[in-house]
Design goal:
The protein is mostly helical. It contains seven helices and no strands. The model has no long low-confidence stretch (mean pLDDT about 80).
Length: about 150
């Protein structure tokens, strides 16, 4: 490696040369291509957009479903007995004909969740989170190094 100090006039020389270069003109099709890309992005259906761009009522619905599912899973893991009546008395009245089957299934699932120690559930969640992050990382790397590389060619 060269241990000599850099030439102090080199930076000034390069700056002068760069300032003498003419401005590059944008291609004539650039504006049309940009507007076409914006229109195509705006025309995508809601489910192909980011969650923050979804219609407000679907954001609220998905948030309620996610929180409800998470709460029910946490309630099951902590060992509470779950029956259809404990989940929703109104729902239990409306589906009384199938209520016993649903209650039986929920009690079976509760017994299964109770039979597995909480440390196993936490380990399983950790493994699932690791798998999720691995897939996201590999997908991002694939997109960056393969898909974007193919577009350059």
């Amino acid at each position: 490696m060269n241990n000599q100090p850099p030439d102090p006039g080199l930076e000034e020389l390069i700056g002068r040369k760069l300032r003498t270069l003419p401005e590059r003109k944008a291609p004539a099709s650039l504006r049309a291509n940009v507007f076409a890309a914006i229109r195509a992005r705006a025309a995508r259906p809601w489910y192909q957009r980011a969650w923050f761009e979804w219609p407000r009522h679907l954001q609220v619905l998905s948030l309620v479903l996610f929180l409800g599912f998470s709460g029910a899973l946490g309630w099951l893991i902590t060992g509470h007995e779950v029956t259809l009546t404990s989940l929703s008395p109104v729902l239990a009245e409306r589906v009384s004909s199938v209520g016993s089957e649903i209650g039986w299934f929920l009690n079976l699932m509760t017994a299964f969740v109770r039979a597995v120690p909480a440390s196993y559930w936490m380990a399983a969640l950790g493994v699932l989170a690791g798998m999720l992050f691995t897939c996201a990382g590999l997908g991002s790397a694939f997109y960056r190094f393969v898909v974007l590389d193919l577009r350059k060619d």
